[in-house]
Design goal:
Blueprint: H1 5-14, H2 26-34, E1 42-46, H3 47-60, E2 66-69, H4 71-75, H5 79-86, E3 92-97, H6 100-108, E4 115-117, H7 123-131, E5 134-138, H8 141-154, E6 158-165, E7 173-174, H9 178-187, E8 191-197, H10 204-223, E9 230-232, H11 236-241, H12 267-270, E10 277-282, E11 285-289, E12 294-295, E13 301-302, E14 307-312, E15 329-332, E16 335-342, E17 347-352, E18 362-366, H13 375-382, E19 398-401
The structure holds pyridoxal-5'-phosphate (PLP).
Length: 404
């Protein structure tokens, strides 16, 4: 029977209802189902899993508010999309990012939580940042000058964060110069310090020393009548490793996405997290390669016995970790298959001597379905650290679901 287009759209949508699509992706999903997405990878995000992880992080931090670090495009998972999910959580006190234009993108998509810019900004975008009430970090003498000038030009109140370098050595005002710069900030009545923060290193002894440096500075500021606003120090690792780092808010990134910052964290058992995303891609080519054939530029994978090889349309240039060819698995029609080759734009999967897989079948490269394909499971199989597998390119489309 011939279907008209409307019936087809309805049917293809009905097939997806198990995944309960939230309204803002409704039309987007139809588009994906009918048009281009059968030839490209995509990422699915679970609102429920993110909110579950937030509640677990909240327990880890004994109820302290959470500033969600969504830098690097939320580690490749979509900063605006994740921010929209987190915007509804009362445990989330704010969002922190590093790139100026992402703050604007979030505001344009309705993200209303306080947004902290932990990096620098371009002058062309400065007015918009003030307009949209983005908290600007003062991380050096020069950045204070820049923000003083901005306050003069706009004649508007600007929220600022005092970013202190207590020993990471990468960003922030060197801790010994902080008091002097804070006194300078106080002289400008357009500027108000709403947050004071620093970042801890992982070695515990030094992290403790950093905390002491931080606390002695913030105490001195308070004695001088300079308000510090909300104080925060702890990325995921310190959050778990060093409770005294919690201060007035914690500042995790990777935990939100369901991974622990280190493969061997005992705390993982106490606070299990949910996998928040799936990375999926269709099979675009299927060929039976013969014994003696090889795959890849370096002829990396050698075929010993004739076998079916599937090609997926993504590779390391899309942010899929090339280490996957050292043992990662993907799920295809309910079964796990081994990744045997990762190039810039293509990945190959070994399907064995016989297969029922067809071109167009969808592979799940990362997802909650099996331990081998969770972000943590992937990390173990490829012996990489947990930050590696999540650097997906912005060009990979994201779909948000209420739950998986
Ligand atoms: C990246 C980053 C974080 C979050 O780090 P995770 O290890 O992902 O929790 C926190 N604070 C700062 C300043 C960062 O750059």
């Amino acid at each position: 029977m011939k279907q008209n287009r409307r019936q087809f759209i309805y049917k293809s949508f009905a097939g997806l209802t198990a995944m309960v699509i939230s309204p803002h992706v409704f039309s987007y999903s139809l588009f994906q189902k009918n048009k281009s997405y059968d030839s490209k990878p995509w990422i699915e995000l679970s609102e429920a899993a993110y909110l579950y992880n937030v509640s677990q992080i909240s327990k880890m931090a004994k109820g302290k508010p959470i500033i969600a670090v969504l830098k690097n495009n939320a580690y490749g998972l979509g900063d605006v999309q994740v921010a929209r999910i987190l915007n509804n959580s009362s445990s989330i006190a704010g969002i922190a990012i590093v790139k100026d234009e992402r703050a604007i993108a979030m505001r344009n998509e309705g993200v209303s939580k306080p947004i902290l810019l932990m990096g620098d900004f371009d002058s062309v975008i400065a007015n918009a940042l003030v307009e949209k009430e983005i908290t600007l970090s003062i991380f050096s003498k020069d950045s204070l000058k820049k923000i003083n000038t901005l306050a003069k030009e706009t004649n508007k109140a600007i929220k600022v964060a005092l970013y202190i370098d207590t020993g990471l050595g990468r960003m922030g005002i060197p801790y010994k110069e902080t008091i002097r710069i804070a006194e300078e900030i106080k002289k400008n009545d357009k500027l108000s310090i709403t947050q004071t923060f620093s970042t801890l290193t992982t070695p515990k002894d030094f992290a403790k020393e950093q905390i002491q440096r931080f606390e002695s500075i913030t105490n001195e500021l308070n004695e001088k009548g300079i308000s510090t606003g909300i104080k925060h120090l702890a990325p995921s690792y310190s959050l778990l490793d060093l409770p005294q780092s919690h201060q007035e808010a914690v500042r995790p990134g990777i935990l939100l996405h369901g991974s622990f910052p280190s493969v061997k964290m005992e705390e993982a058992k106490q606070f299990p997290l949910k996998v928040t995303y799936r990375l999926k891609a269709p099979v675009i080519r299927l060929e039976k390669l013969k014994a003696g054939d090889t795959i890849g530029f370096s002829r990396f994978y050698k075929i010993n016995k004739d076998e079916w090889i599937a090609t997926l349309p993504l590779g390391w240039a899309d942010g899929y970790d090339s280490g996957a060819e050292n043992g990662a698995m993907v799920l295809l029609n309910g079964k796990l298959y081994r990744v045997v080759n990762v190039n810039a734009s293509h990945t190959n999967i070994s399907l064995g001597a016989k297969t029922k897989i067809k071109v167009g079948d969808i592979a799940t490269l990362i997802g909650p379905e099996r331990p081998e394909i969770t972000p943590e499971g992937f990390g173990k199989l490829v012996k990489g650290h947990n930050y590696l597998q999540i650097n997906y390119k912005e060009s990979i489309p994201k779909k948000t679901y209420e739950t998986f």
